[in-house]
């Protein structure tokens, strides 16, 4: 498995950051480059494991399903609709920036993980695919920063 992580520090409180991430069907409301997003099912359970959304980005469409949800710190989802033999997931970790009230803010890490069943060249393919998929991480983190500033203001 190959992983690529990106981290940013936001001035917003963790609750504001978590509120955006936890509203799983509203990705298009804050993420640049996402043209449309909608939920494909309804999950009554808490945590909402198995909740699925369809995400449209230009001509590309993926389906993302929540696999780990530990409010208000961890949101992980599998991404389907990428090339065959690739298993891809994104994990958001949301943590308070400081230990004291004088050091407010949030540290957010977005980790993309890729596994493949592509035989001997699999590890090389995993690293390449992880870097390609993770290219979307920086714009997502930038969009999250912009959206939390709007919410906090």
From TrEMBL:
This is Polyketide cyclase / dehydrase and lipid transport. It comes from the Bacteria. InterPro entries: Polyketide_cyclase/dehydratase, START-like_dom_sf.
């Amino acid at each position: 498995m190959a992983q690529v992580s990106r981290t940013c520090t936001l001035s917003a409180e963790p609750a504001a950051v978590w509120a955006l991430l936890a509203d799983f069907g509203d990705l298009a409301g804050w993420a640049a480059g996402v043209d449309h997003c909608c939920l494909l099912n309804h999950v009554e359970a808490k945590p909402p494991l198995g909740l699925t959304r369809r995400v449209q980005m230009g001509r590309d469409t993926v389906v993302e399903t929540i696999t780990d949800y530990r409010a208000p710190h961890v949101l992980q989802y599998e991404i389907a609709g990428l090339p065959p033999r690739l298993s891809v997931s994104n994990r958001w970790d949301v943590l308070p920036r400081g230990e004291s009230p004088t050091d407010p803010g949030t540290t957010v890490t977005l980790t993309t993980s890729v596994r493949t069943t592509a035989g001997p060249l699999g590890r090389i393919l995993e690293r390449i695919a992880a870097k390609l998929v993770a290219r979307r991480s920086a714009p997502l983190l930038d969009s999250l920063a912009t959206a939390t500033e709007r919410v906090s203001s």
